[in-house]
Amino acid sequence: MFHGIGDNAGSFDNLLALLPKNFYYICTDFPSHGKSSHLPLTIPINANGYILIVKMIMDYFNKDKYIFIGHSLGGLCGFWICKIYPERFEKFIAIDGSHFFTVEAKDCIKYLKLMLSKQEKMRQYLLQGKGLEYTYDEIAEIVSTRRYGDEVLTRKATEPLLKRCLEPTGNGRYYFTTDLRVFFMIGPLQDISYARDLLRMTSFSCPVLMVLAKQNQRLLRDFKPTVKEVMKTENITTVFVDGKHDVHNNRPELVARHIIHFLQNKSKI
C-alpha cells in the first residue's frame, strides 16, 4: 500500500481497520516521507523516480504476486508498475489517483521552471538545519488543513499521519520531518492525448479498481478526458464515492466496501 504526496503509511490506518484480515498488508513510507530517509538534496524529486522504489520494495519482500493499493502518487506508481511487470500483480486498486496528472506542451517549460525553483528554495531552507518548531496542536492544524483541494482532515484522520512525521525537540515541541520538497514534486510530463493513448495502447493484465472522489473538482474538470477513457477501458472498474481527495482517510467506510468486494471477487466486478 502506497500513500500520496506529503502523507505517509499512517494515511491507511483507518482504512486498514475495515479491510479483510485474511490478507497480509504492507504499508510503506515513500522516501522523504514519514519515517523513511530523505532523498539527496542534490537530486530534484520526480514522481516517476518512485516507481523504482516500489520495484525495490517488491524485490525485498520477494513475493511472486502482489495486490497493489495506491492513493494519489501511490496510484500513479501502481499504474506504471502493473504495466511494466504485469506478471507480478493479481489486482490493482487506485484510490483517487492514477496517471491523470497532465501538463500540456505549451505549459511544460513554465511548469518545470516553477517546480525546480520551488524545490531549490526548499533545498536551501533545509540546508540551514531542522527548521521550525511547533506545538502538537499547531502541527496537527497544519497537517489537517493544508491539503489538496482545500480539504480538511478530521482529527481521527490526522492522528495516524502525525505518528510518523513528527520528531520531538525535547521542549514539548516538534519538528515536521516530511521533506518539504515533496510538495513541489515534478509530475509526469505528459499531455492529455498521451495519457489517453497509454490506456488505449497498453492494457492491464490484472483486474483494476479505480475509486474516484466525487468532490475532487480538479480531477473531474481538468482531467475529465482521461477519466472518461479510464471508464471505458477493458478490465478497469470505476466507482465514484462521496468525498474529496483523501476520502479513504476521512471516510474510509465509503472506500472500504468497494475494496472488500473487489478483493473477495475472483474476477472483475
From TrEMBL:
<dbReference type="Pfam" id="PF00561">
    <property type="entry name" value="Abhydrolase_1"/>
</dbReference>
<protein>
    <submittedName>
        <fullName>Serine hydrolase-like protein isoform X3</fullName>
    </submittedName>
</protein>
<dbReference type="InterPro" id="IPR050266">
    <property type="entry name" value="AB_hydrolase_sf"/>
</dbReference>
<dbReference type="GO" id="GO:0016787">
    <property type="term" value="F:hydrolase activity"/>
</dbReference>
<dbReference type="GO" id="GO:0016020">
    <property type="term" value="C:membrane"/>
</dbReference>
<dbReference type="InterPro" id="IPR000073">
    <property type="entry name" value="AB_hydrolase_1"/>
</dbReference>
<comment type="similarity">
    <text>Belongs to the AB hydrolase superfamily.</text>
</comment>
<dbReference type="InterPro" id="IPR029058">
    <property type="entry name" value="AB_hydrolase_fold"/>
</dbReference>
<keyword id="KW-0378">Hydrolase</keyword>
<feature type="domain" description="AB hydrolase-1">
    <location>
        <begin position="1"/>
        <end position="107"/>
    </location>
</feature>
